Amino acid sequence: MITIRINDRPINLTKNSTLSQVLEQHVHGQKTEPELNQQGFVIALNQNFVPRSQYPTTLLNDNDHIELLSPMAGG
User: Fold this and answer.
1) What is the distance between the alpha carbons of residues 31 and 25, in angstroms, rounded to a whole number?
2) pLDDT tens for each residue of 38-73
3) Is the pTM of this model over 0.70?
4) CA within 20 to 30 Å of 16's CA: 4, 60, 62, 69, which one?
5) How far apart are CA 54 and CA 18, in angstroms?
6) Confidence of residue 24 (pLDDT cuts 50, 70, 90)
7) If 0-12 CB within 10 Å is exposed, 13-18 middle and 19+ buried, where does residue 1 land?
């Protein structure tokens, strides 16, 4: 087992879990705030942006920190 954090909330996972699996189980699966169940956010893993296309291949490690961020438009 490993422990990660999603927006500072600890989550226990099995080793070799992917970012896609975690999102499906702990974000889209109604285990977090309802506003995060929509795909209106981007992800930073250990303070690095992860493109959506890499979610299925991004393996998580013990003590990883995931931040779900609302995209912001700027000028």
Assistant:
1) 8
2) 467 889 999 999 999 999 999 999 999 999 987 666
3) yes
4) 69
5) 10
6) confident
7) exposed
